TrEMBL record:
<dbReference type="GO" id="GO:0016740">
    <property type="term" value="F:transferase activity"/>
</dbReference>
<keyword id="KW-1133">Transmembrane helix</keyword>
<keyword id="KW-0472">Membrane</keyword>
<keyword id="KW-0294">Fucose metabolism</keyword>
<dbReference type="InterPro" id="IPR019378">
    <property type="entry name" value="GDP-Fuc_O-FucTrfase"/>
</dbReference>
<keyword id="KW-0119">Carbohydrate metabolism</keyword>
<feature type="transmembrane region" description="Helical">
    <location>
        <begin position="26"/>
        <end position="48"/>
    </location>
</feature>
<keyword id="KW-0808">Transferase</keyword>
<keyword id="KW-0812">Transmembrane</keyword>
<dbReference type="GO" id="GO:0006004">
    <property type="term" value="P:fucose metabolic process"/>
</dbReference>
<protein>
    <submittedName>
        <fullName>Uncharacterized protein</fullName>
    </submittedName>
</protein>
<dbReference type="Pfam" id="PF10250">
    <property type="entry name" value="O-FucT"/>
</dbReference>
């Protein structure tokens, strides 16, 4: 042993060294003792499985297992539903309509289609009730009314029913009409059912028989107006099983809206249309992506409602692109087969990019030409943006916002390509929005609001999301040469 041999060598006891040796011995003993206790303890635990009760209190309580991470269920917007039910025009104490109440409910409204489709139909139904001088009966934006609160879409859970007031505000969801307008206020379907146990039902064919151009929105509305003019019965609905009054034949026909537009765009249905506080809040939260940098404009949600045109004025410097991807890869091929024309609300004669379906001798060339407008490639997008930035309406653009359902990979490449090609202060997309849980399921409306206000908007003529944006831009008299298509 090293210390003793040292001692022998010196012939002297070195107290310091000896002391150190002694301490070391205790240390070794302590380590051994610790190892023995631990080993026995483990063996004991392995044998009996658990710490005996007498010792247990000395141990900290075991931690519960971590919770399994599952995504929370979609919101059901109960508060919005309750607020709708408590509108002041609902007289729940009545068992039947009072003398001045007259309703119109379109029971065959669409189900299971995107918000873009549902919205244009809702606007026309609302206008039809307005023209007929009846209260519009509004229900929910309905994905599925089989009674289940949730449905599945693309493998994800979504709410089956969404109260309209989570998405929009204004007379369509029961707000007052502008001062002096005698139209009775819209009511909720639950109230309609409450005061109208019995309803007078009309079928679509009652009206389509008496009109010539079956897709003309004006003829349809005038037809219903005439039909309802001498109906005294307050509780009127369309047959639940006879489908939509305004269906895709109408919304897909480029001539369908032309003769109704002057009156529709001047009606409170559009002049007093608004996006819901929930949607506006999402706009406010993310506004650095849209408004000029360091903008001191007040937040939308802090302003009292005035009119559609006033509230959603053009944002200088912003270009918004609507890039419909995903299911449109297949849908565009399908549309190219007809070939389909642009949607009714994307076919205003004042717009600078009318679509003429390619009908050359070569079918493949026709399809390729069609695809350039419906599902443009990355290069085609970059070229089109470059071309449009040179136009007069595009002067002073600084920020670019991409409204899209494209996947992250494509978006990253596109952003880089756009960034390299032109000078931008910021490029962002729908995927960059910060949204709360309730906003996430109405995010399309946030995009619509941005597109509606952009200095220059570029859309897809077959998408209803685009056509609603175009409609709002036209209604608010935003210069038509700033509303473009791919
Ligand atoms: C609308 O949806 C709410 C849930 O948000 C539901 O309670 C209500 O019954 C629905 N009303 C109609 C008429 O579908």
């Amino acid at each position: 042993m090293l210390p003793s041999s040292l001692r022998e060598k010196d012939g002297l006891a070195r107290p310091g060294l000896y002391l150190r040796f002694k301490t070391r011995r205790y240390l070794v003993l302590a380590v051994i003792a610790f190892a023995v206790v631990t080993l026995f303890g483990r063996a004991f635990l392995a044998w009996f499985g658990t710490v005996p009760r007498v010792f247990r209190d000395a141990y900290p309580p075991p931690l519960p297992p971590p919770p399994a991470i599952t995504s929370p269920l979609p919101p059901l917007y109960e508060n919005y539903h309750h607020t709708e039910l408590s509108l002041p025009q609902h007289h729940w104490d009545q068992r039947r309509p009072s003398k001045d109440e007259k309703f119109l409910f379109v029971a065959g409204h669409s189900r299971g289609c995107g918000w873009g489709n549902a919205m244009q139909e809702l606007l026309l139904n609302a206008y039809m009730a307005y023209k007929a001088g009846r209260s519009l009966v509004f229900a929910n934006y309905t994905w599925n009314d089989n009674g289940s609160p949730y449905s599945e879409y693309n493998g994800k859970k979504i709410p089956s029913l969404i109260p309209y007031s989570t998405i929009i505000q204004g007379p369509i969801v029961g707000a007052p009409f502008p001062y002096g307008d005698p139209t009775p206020l819209a009511v909720h379907r639950d109230y309609f059912d409450h005061v109208c146990p019995k309803k007078l039902t009309f079928i679509r064919e009652d009206i389509s028989e008496i009109i010539d151009f079956k897709n003309s929105a004006k003829e349809i509305i005038d037809g219903w107006h005439d039909k309802l003019a001498d109906v005294d019965e307050p509780c009127v609905q369309t047959a639940p099983n006879s489908g939509q009054i305004f269906n895709f034949d109408v919304f897909g026909d480029p001539r369908a809206m032309i003769d109704i537009w002057p009156e529709l765009s001047a009606s409170p249905i559009l002049t007093h249309f608004g996006w819901s506080p929930l949607v506006e809040l999402a706009f406010d939260t993310n506004r650095d992506m849209f408004l000029p940098s360091l903008s001191i404009a007040p937040y939308l949600t802090s302003l009292p409602y005035t009119t559609n045109a006033d509230r959603y004025a053009v944002i200088p410097g912003l270009m918004a692109l609507h890039l419909r991807r995903g299911d449109f890869a297949g849908h565009c091929e399908h549309l190219a087969g007809y070939p389909a024309e642009y949607n009714a609300f994307s076919s205003f004669p004042d717009l600078p990019d009318p679509f003429v379906p390619p009908r050359g001798p070569d079918a493949d060339e026709n399809r390729a030409a069609f695809r350039a407008h419906c599902y443009p490639t990355l290069e085609q997008i970059v070229t089109r943006v470059r071309e449009l930035r040179r136009t007069h309406a595009a002067r002073g653009l600084r920020k670019l916002y991409i409204m899209t359902n494209a996947d992250e990979g494509f978006l990253r490449e596109l952003r880089e390509a756009l960034w390299r090609d032109q000078d931008w202060q910021m490029i962002s997309s729908s995927r960059d929005l910060v949204l709360n849980w309730e906003q996430r399921h109405v995010a399309q409306a946030v995009d619509m609001l941005v597109g509606q206000r952009a200095q220059v908007f570029v859309g897809n003529g077959w998408s209803t999301l685009t056509s609603n944006v175009v409609m709002m831009r036209m209604a608010n008299r935003i210069r038509p040469d700033s509303t473009r298509f791919w």
